[in-house]
Fold this sequence. Notes:
Blueprint: H1 8-33, H2 36-52, E1 62-67, H3 69-75, H4 82-94, E2 99-102, H5 114-120, H6 126-134, H7 138-147, E3 151-157, H8 166-172, E4 181-184, E5 193-195, E6 198-199, H9 203-208, E7 211-214, E8 228-229, E9 231-234, E10 237-241, H10 242-250, E11 256-261, E12 264-270, E13 273-276, E14 282-283, E15 295-297, H11 298-302, E16 315-320, E17 328-331, E18 334-338, H12 339-351, H13 362-384, H14 386-411, H15 418-450, H16 456-464, E19 474-485, H17 488-493, H18 499-519, E20 523-528, E21 531-536, H19 545-571, E22 584-599, E23 604-609, H20 611-626, E24 630-632, H21 634-640, E25 645-653, E26 661-668, H22 670-673, H23 676-693, H24 697-714, H25 717-736, E27 747-748
Amino acid sequence: MFWRGWSQRNRGILISRLAGLILLISLLIIRIVDPVLVANLRNQGFDFLQRLSPRPEITSPVVIVDIDESSLESFGQWPWPRTRVAEIVEKLTRLGAVTIGFDIIFAEEDRLSPPRVAEDNPKLPEVALQALKDLPQNEEALVAAMKNSRVVLGESSRRLGQWDDPSKVKERKTEPRKIPHAQLGEDPAPFLLQFPQLVQNVKEINDAAAGLGIVNVLPDVDNIFRKVPLVVQAEGTMRMALSAEAIRIATGGRAFAVRTDAAGVSSIIVGGVEIPTDQNASIWPWFNASSRDRYVSAGDILNDAVEQQKVRGKIALLGTSAVGLEDYRATPIASSMPGVEIHAQVIENILTQSFLIRPNFGLGMELVFVAVVGLLIIWIVPLLGAIYSGVAAVLTLGAFAGGSLWAFYSERLLIDGVFPVGALAVLFGLMTMANYIREEVEKRQIRGAFGQYLSPALVDQLSEDPELLVLGGQTKELTLLFTDIRGFTGISESYKKNPQGLTRLMNRFLNTLSAPILEEEGTIDKYMGDAIMAFWNAPLALEDHEFKACRAAIKMRDRLEELNNQRYEELKDSDDEPWHEFRIGIGINTGQSVVGNMGSDLRFDYTALGDTVNLASRLEGQSKPYGFQIIMGDSTAKAVEDRLAVFEIDLIRVKGKTEPERIHVLLGDETLRETEDFRALRAMNSMMLSAYHNQNWTTAFQSLDEMGTIAERMGLADTLSGYLFIYETRISEFRANPPGKSWDGVYDALTK
């Protein structure tokens, strides 16, 4: 019953809103789960922001000592002997580097150390072998150089299972060195990226290092490097990234601190600088383009070809850009950047406090925005339609996308504008499509339901705005029209042997009379054999509905005359079908009626009910005894008497009613009303009725005679003959048998 009580439109809106709500919830769940596609789209949006506004160029606090192609040409292929690496450390120290960081891991002993060469070449002369064995290991030179400098060695992660022989892991593995740190808040370990096993440097080099930093820069699933973990958990110990560890050592080697909040890690403090991070202790570097100004060639360092100002006071990072060594990475603004330069840019970000921030509240804010605006879209789109809601959606989503841009430009905040805008656009598209489908269904239903008995203009109005249609029964002022054929029984009998001919004739007749109703914006309620019921002012409100109904009646009368003439010409020389002159009666009445879908659950019609309807039907029946084609009730007459040729004809009590009704005749249109003869006729009719009700029978008779003369002059003698005869008969009877002083002038109709 609840569902039945809803209109078709409301049911459609409810279904579309439920579909929208399901989609909205699904979109929110998708964002929380964050599948690869969604993450990629979000990251590409962040990349776009960086490409729009890359980090400004600065005088870099970092110098990259590049093992480039020219270095390899001059000093041979990589790996170089540790003695040569030691020479680079010594020269960088003399040039004034505050810290030297290695984006290189010395995980194996140097195969070029003299004792190792002797071991690998046992067939050399004994003297040569002994001489090589007596020389120191190359690592000793590197260790000595490192002790006179501040060197940060790189470490990497490796998962168990990557070793061919697990027993060798234990042989080469050294216990990870502890890095001094403090915890501000809860234990950060559960939030940190976990590295199950470190790839460390050989022990003697490892022990000589001032610091140890992770060189891993983890890519996203699309292999673009966007985030750098500043602190990780490796084999149960905390390790900072190479970039952050280089800063720690450059600023005195004090302990770093990890600050946590309820969401996870919130920041890292190193060298007195607090660095906001995400909950996993990672940062989003604000990249700029790769610049050769950051680089010096390792070969030039070895050849003493580098000016001291290029190195003095800077952090030196040793890495490679040589193509053959394959240390290139894709970043948001470059498809290929040497890995060591990513570390350099991270150091620049930290020291200039110019990193990007993806706030911990970002996801929550984005979800709330999608939820709130999504609910507004679900609620508003079915009410406002596509245009207005589309403008509102564009402005709202544009404002959010603009806010994302503003947050990046002004505060370097990364607010995802891609998923919220995309998700809400999808939701808006669904709601708009549902609106369109619902409206098309409504239009088809309305055209199917009303197309046969409403004018095309009214059907179009209902189709465009179904809310104008209120179904289920409502009380409205209607103007009702009934029409019927006079003598239809005799006509149908003449077609007893030709029923198909009668069907064609009735279709032609009904088409002729229906057209004026639709032209005057009326609603055809039903066809009842040879009769038509129509009304005005429903389902759409219609101004001046009384006048339109009267004008339709005049057109019906005139077109029926045309139809009679056409059929006469068609049949005057034919014996196939009889010719009959169609004559009709029309009753019109205005008043309160109930209009809407009436019937049962199995079948119903859009119709009107009430006393006004019954009276209109009775008035049509009275057209026969009075001899007029169009008779109307008092309410209708009062609405049109100043514009149409109307005058009162009687005060009657129709069969089945107790209250009398003042009835009027409609003789013609505005043109007839303005003629002198009609004015005279109406005045004389008023005089006659006044004398009649006052029982002044002589004056009434004289008025009737004068009306007959005027009617003759107007060519309406036949039209008024029945009416004049009725009053002549009544007056004659009343003269012979006066009705008495209690007579109210009401005539009781004996027929319907």
